Recover the amino acids of this structure.
Protein backbone atom coordinates (compact mmCIF):
# COMPACT_ATOMS: atom_id res chain seq x y z
CA UNK A 1 0.00 0.00 0.00
CA UNK A 2 2.35 2.69 -1.19
CA UNK A 3 1.95 5.91 -3.09
CA UNK A 4 4.03 4.54 -5.96
CA UNK A 5 1.49 1.76 -6.43
CA UNK A 6 -1.44 4.17 -6.50
CA UNK A 7 -3.73 3.35 -9.41
CA UNK A 8 -7.41 3.27 -10.28
CA UNK A 9 -10.32 5.50 -11.13
CA UNK A 10 -10.24 9.27 -10.63
CA UNK A 11 -12.32 10.26 -7.60
CA UNK A 12 -11.64 13.99 -7.39
CA UNK A 13 -9.59 16.69 -9.07
CA UNK A 14 -6.37 15.24 -7.64
CA UNK A 15 -7.28 11.92 -6.11
CA UNK A 16 -7.56 8.32 -7.19
CA UNK A 17 -8.79 5.07 -5.70
CA UNK A 18 -7.12 1.67 -5.53
CA UNK A 19 -8.38 -1.70 -4.33
CA UNK A 20 -6.52 -4.38 -2.43
CA UNK A 21 -7.14 -7.21 0.06
CA UNK A 22 -7.79 -6.60 3.73
CA UNK A 23 -4.50 -8.08 4.95
CA UNK A 24 -2.42 -5.75 2.79
CA UNK A 25 -4.39 -2.70 3.89
CA UNK A 26 -4.41 -3.60 7.60
CA UNK A 27 -0.75 -4.61 7.84
CA UNK A 28 0.46 -1.72 5.73
CA UNK A 29 -1.54 1.12 7.28
CA UNK A 30 0.74 2.06 10.19
CA UNK A 31 3.81 2.32 7.95
CA UNK A 32 1.77 4.07 5.27
CA UNK A 33 0.77 6.86 7.66
CA UNK A 34 4.31 7.20 9.03
CA UNK A 35 5.88 7.35 5.56
CA UNK A 36 3.25 9.88 4.51
CA UNK A 37 4.10 11.98 7.56
CA UNK A 38 7.82 11.86 6.77
CA UNK A 39 7.23 12.74 3.14
CA UNK A 40 5.10 15.74 4.18
CA UNK A 41 7.63 16.94 6.76
CA UNK A 42 5.13 16.59 9.59
CA UNK A 43 6.13 18.25 12.88
CA UNK A 44 2.78 18.35 14.75
CA UNK A 45 0.66 15.18 14.64
CA UNK A 46 -2.44 14.08 16.53
CA UNK A 47 -3.70 10.51 16.65
CA UNK A 48 -7.46 10.52 17.14
CA UNK A 49 -9.07 7.82 19.26
CA UNK A 50 -5.68 6.23 19.86
CA UNK A 51 -6.67 5.44 23.44
CA UNK A 52 -4.81 2.54 24.98
CA UNK A 53 -2.80 1.63 21.85
CA UNK A 54 -1.47 4.78 20.14
CA UNK A 55 0.57 4.20 17.01
CA UNK A 56 2.59 7.37 17.64
CA UNK A 57 3.67 6.05 21.03
CA UNK A 58 6.63 4.40 19.27
CA UNK A 59 9.29 7.11 19.55
CA UNK A 60 11.77 5.10 17.47
CA UNK A 61 9.43 5.37 14.49
CA UNK A 62 7.74 8.71 15.22
CA UNK A 63 10.54 10.68 16.85
CA UNK A 64 10.83 12.91 13.77
CA UNK A 65 7.60 14.65 14.89
CA UNK A 66 8.40 17.07 17.71
CA UNK A 67 4.81 17.37 18.90
CA UNK A 68 2.82 14.14 19.24
CA UNK A 69 -0.57 14.07 20.95
CA UNK A 70 -3.24 11.39 21.36
CA UNK A 71 -6.81 12.70 21.56
CA UNK A 72 -9.51 10.41 22.93
CA UNK A 73 -12.88 10.76 24.64
CA UNK A 74 -11.89 8.29 27.38
CA UNK A 75 -9.44 9.28 30.11
CA UNK A 76 -9.49 5.64 31.24
CA UNK A 77 -8.23 4.44 27.85
CA UNK A 78 -5.62 7.20 27.64
CA UNK A 79 -4.27 6.16 31.04
CA UNK A 80 -3.37 2.79 29.49
CA UNK A 81 -1.37 4.40 26.68
CA UNK A 82 2.35 3.70 26.48
CA UNK A 83 4.97 6.08 25.15
CA UNK A 84 6.43 9.54 25.65
CA UNK A 85 3.63 11.68 24.25
CA UNK A 86 0.95 14.17 25.20
CA UNK A 87 -2.66 13.08 25.78
CA UNK A 88 -5.84 15.08 25.61
CA UNK A 89 -9.38 14.13 26.60
CA UNK A 90 -11.90 15.51 24.11
CA UNK A 91 -15.20 14.54 22.50
CA UNK A 92 -14.40 14.73 18.81
CA UNK A 93 -18.10 14.83 17.96
CA UNK A 94 -18.54 18.17 19.72
CA UNK A 95 -17.10 21.45 18.45
CA UNK A 96 -13.43 21.96 19.38
CA UNK A 97 -12.76 25.68 19.58
CA UNK A 98 -9.03 25.79 20.27
CA UNK A 99 -5.86 24.78 18.39
CA UNK A 100 -7.36 25.61 15.00
CA UNK A 101 -4.92 25.63 12.06
CA UNK A 102 -2.34 23.89 14.24
CA UNK A 103 -1.63 20.32 13.11
CA UNK A 104 0.19 19.03 10.05
CA UNK A 105 -1.43 15.59 10.28
CA UNK A 106 -4.42 14.03 12.02
CA UNK A 107 -5.10 10.33 11.69
CA UNK A 108 -7.15 7.50 13.15
CA UNK A 109 -7.42 3.73 12.96
CA UNK A 110 -10.70 1.93 13.64
CA UNK A 111 -12.31 5.05 15.11
CA UNK A 112 -14.65 6.48 12.47
CA UNK A 113 -17.20 3.67 12.70
CA UNK A 114 -17.80 4.55 16.37
CA UNK A 115 -18.65 8.22 15.82
CA UNK A 116 -22.27 9.30 16.37
CA UNK A 117 -21.72 12.61 14.53
CA UNK A 118 -19.39 12.05 11.60
CA UNK A 119 -19.87 15.51 10.10
CA UNK A 120 -18.82 17.26 13.30
CA UNK A 121 -15.83 14.93 13.65
CA UNK A 122 -14.53 15.71 10.17
CA UNK A 123 -15.30 19.40 10.62
CA UNK A 124 -13.14 19.35 13.76
CA UNK A 125 -10.38 17.65 11.79
CA UNK A 126 -10.61 20.32 9.10
CA UNK A 127 -10.46 23.12 11.68
CA UNK A 128 -7.52 21.64 13.62
CA UNK A 129 -5.38 21.22 10.51
CA UNK A 130 -3.18 23.94 9.10
CA UNK A 131 -3.85 24.79 5.43
CA UNK A 132 -2.34 21.98 3.37
CA UNK A 133 -2.53 19.51 6.28
CA UNK A 134 -3.70 15.91 6.00
CA UNK A 135 -6.51 13.94 7.66
CA UNK A 136 -6.06 10.16 7.27
CA UNK A 137 -8.45 7.46 8.49
CA UNK A 138 -8.76 3.67 8.43
CA UNK A 139 -12.24 2.20 9.03
CA UNK A 140 -14.51 -0.77 8.26
CA UNK A 141 -17.17 -0.06 5.66
CA UNK A 142 -20.82 -0.79 5.16
CA UNK A 143 -22.28 -2.80 3.51
CA UNK A 144 -20.17 -5.78 4.48
CA UNK A 145 -22.49 -8.26 6.17
CA UNK A 146 -20.72 -8.60 9.58
CA UNK A 147 -20.69 -4.82 9.95
CA UNK A 148 -24.35 -4.51 9.03
CA UNK A 149 -25.07 -7.08 11.74
CA UNK A 150 -22.88 -5.19 14.21
CA UNK A 151 -24.73 -1.95 13.45
CA UNK A 152 -28.19 -3.48 13.90
CA UNK A 153 -27.49 -5.86 16.79
CA UNK A 154 -27.95 -4.76 20.44
CA UNK A 155 -24.55 -4.03 22.01
CA UNK A 156 -24.80 -6.81 24.62
CA UNK A 157 -25.47 -9.40 21.92
CA UNK A 158 -22.72 -7.96 19.72
CA UNK A 159 -20.16 -8.33 22.53
CA UNK A 160 -21.22 -11.93 23.10
CA UNK A 161 -20.86 -12.69 19.38
CA UNK A 162 -17.45 -11.02 19.25
CA UNK A 163 -16.28 -13.18 22.14
CA UNK A 164 -17.17 -16.24 20.05
CA UNK A 165 -15.50 -14.98 16.88
CA UNK A 166 -12.40 -13.54 18.62
CA UNK A 167 -12.04 -15.52 21.88
CA UNK A 168 -10.18 -13.73 24.65
CA UNK A 169 -10.11 -10.28 23.02
CA UNK A 170 -12.45 -8.65 25.53
CA UNK A 171 -10.34 -9.94 28.41
CA UNK A 172 -7.10 -8.33 27.19
CA UNK A 173 -7.82 -4.99 28.83
CA UNK A 174 -6.62 -2.83 25.94
CA UNK A 175 -8.73 -4.32 23.12
CA UNK A 176 -12.24 -3.46 24.26
CA UNK A 177 -15.28 -3.20 21.98
CA UNK A 178 -17.18 0.06 21.64
CA UNK A 179 -20.62 0.78 20.12
CA UNK A 180 -20.51 1.22 16.34
CA UNK A 181 -22.61 3.63 14.26
CA UNK A 182 -20.97 3.35 10.79
CA UNK A 183 -21.71 6.91 9.70
CA UNK A 184 -19.73 8.17 6.70
CA UNK A 185 -18.00 4.78 6.55
CA UNK A 186 -18.69 3.27 3.14
CA UNK A 187 -16.68 2.49 0.05
CA UNK A 188 -15.61 5.22 -2.42
CA UNK A 189 -19.04 5.96 -3.83
CA UNK A 190 -19.80 9.36 -5.32
CA UNK A 191 -21.99 10.16 -2.33
CA UNK A 192 -19.21 9.29 0.13
CA UNK A 193 -16.73 11.48 -1.72
CA UNK A 194 -19.15 14.42 -1.81
CA UNK A 195 -19.58 14.14 1.97
CA UNK A 196 -15.89 14.72 2.62
CA UNK A 197 -15.79 17.49 0.04
CA UNK A 198 -18.79 19.17 1.71
CA UNK A 199 -16.63 19.75 4.81
CA UNK A 200 -13.95 21.38 2.63
CA UNK A 201 -11.51 18.50 2.10
CA UNK A 202 -9.95 17.33 -1.13
CA UNK A 203 -10.00 13.52 -1.37
CA UNK A 204 -6.46 12.65 -2.40
CA UNK A 205 -6.42 8.87 -1.96
CA UNK A 206 -8.99 6.18 -1.20
CA UNK A 207 -7.69 2.68 -0.60
CA UNK A 208 -10.57 0.21 -0.56
CA UNK A 209 -10.09 -3.35 0.68
CA UNK A 210 -12.14 -6.47 0.20
CA UNK A 211 -12.42 -9.38 2.60
CA UNK A 212 -12.48 -9.99 6.36
CA UNK A 213 -11.72 -12.75 8.83
CA UNK A 214 -15.00 -12.97 10.73
CA UNK A 215 -15.90 -16.30 9.07
CA UNK A 216 -12.63 -18.04 9.94
CA UNK A 217 -14.38 -20.35 12.42
CA UNK A 218 -16.68 -21.57 9.59
CA UNK A 219 -14.28 -22.79 6.92
CA UNK A 220 -16.72 -23.08 3.97
CA UNK A 221 -17.97 -19.53 4.53
CA UNK A 222 -14.42 -18.29 4.91
CA UNK A 223 -13.43 -19.89 1.61
CA UNK A 224 -16.39 -18.26 -0.15
CA UNK A 225 -15.49 -14.87 1.34
CA UNK A 226 -11.89 -15.20 0.15
CA UNK A 227 -13.01 -16.15 -3.35
CA UNK A 228 -15.43 -13.23 -3.44
CA UNK A 229 -12.67 -10.86 -2.36
CA UNK A 230 -10.29 -12.06 -5.07
CA UNK A 231 -13.01 -11.50 -7.67
CA UNK A 232 -13.89 -8.01 -6.39
CA UNK A 233 -10.26 -6.86 -6.38
CA UNK A 234 -10.18 -7.60 -10.11
CA UNK A 235 -13.74 -6.33 -10.71
CA UNK A 236 -14.28 -3.72 -7.97
CA UNK A 237 -17.68 -2.51 -6.81
CA UNK A 238 -17.17 0.58 -4.57
CA UNK A 239 -20.18 -0.13 -2.35
CA UNK A 240 -18.98 -3.66 -1.51
CA UNK A 241 -15.62 -2.88 0.10
CA UNK A 242 -14.98 -4.15 3.63
CA UNK A 243 -12.40 -1.60 4.81
CA UNK A 244 -11.01 1.73 3.67
CA UNK A 245 -8.11 4.08 4.21
CA UNK A 246 -8.75 7.64 3.06
CA UNK A 247 -6.33 10.55 2.69
CA UNK A 248 -8.00 13.96 2.89
CA UNK A 249 -6.21 17.29 2.43
CA UNK A 250 -7.22 20.70 3.67
CA UNK A 251 -6.61 23.03 0.72
CA UNK A 252 -3.55 25.26 1.10
Amino acid sequence: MGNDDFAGAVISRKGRVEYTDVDALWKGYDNFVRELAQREGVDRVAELGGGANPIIGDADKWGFANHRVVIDISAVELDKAQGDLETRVADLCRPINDEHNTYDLLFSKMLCEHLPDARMFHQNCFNLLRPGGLSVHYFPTLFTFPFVVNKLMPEKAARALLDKVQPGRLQLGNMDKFPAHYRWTTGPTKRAIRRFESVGFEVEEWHGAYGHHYYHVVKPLDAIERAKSRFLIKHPVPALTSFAAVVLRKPA
